[in-house]
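Chapter review: from sequence to fold.
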Amino acid sequence: MDIEKLQALLQKVKSGEIDIAGAIQRLRNLPFEDIDLARVDYHRAIRTGIPEVVFCQNKTAEQAITILNRLWQHHERVLATRVSAEMAASIKQQLPEAKYDSLTRLLVLEREPLHEPAADSPACMVLSAGTSDMPVAEEAVQTLAFFGSRVEKAYDVGVAGIHRLFGHLEKMHQADVIICVAGMEGALPSVVAGLVSCPLVAVPTSVGYGASFHGVAPLLTMLNSCAPGVAVVNIDNGFGAAVYAHLILKRIQSGVNK
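The token string follows.
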């Protein structure tokens, strides 16, 4: 159950449209349901502002389908990450409404898409150093869009041709938070953090030759950034960066609305 559904239920109790017993019946599965293979958390959006998202890596297709089905019964929109193409095909046989993106390996169920965020709402800008970093950058972009945040993006603006970055300085200065995705040596976040005043989330990717150690080299570079104001998430974790950025944007928006 998300906040909107809970508010609607309480309003119906207040108006007498639903009695207390009926409301309790609807709430009986909060805050979670034990289905043996998982304890499905229907209450997470109410506690944290972020609904439970299904991480599908190492799950079987049957396990993922079972969990997604439960969440789909209680939520208008559901997100799954790290979904293989084979698993997506199995899920779509059971849940034909599912939409799958093979680049990011994200799968979305939604009864109605969210309204576009207002043009003056707080925004995140996602930068990628190279085209090879796009799967991780797009995971961040699409996750932010799923949560309803406004997002801008600029790809292939890494330090190998740093002049490409400067064409986006105006948008970077307008951003409320920036996600910076880079592999190889991972230098881009330090450069960007030295140019802007907003928080920056650095995402190392596993892109690179042998001595990049599948993302360890850019991870260490980002952790050792000499530019202040840089937070670092784990290797290839575009989803985690998007959640962090979304929470910042929500705080800004709540301050605007007070």
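Two observations follow directly from the output. Residues 238-257 form the longest helix (20 residues). The mean pLDDT is 89.
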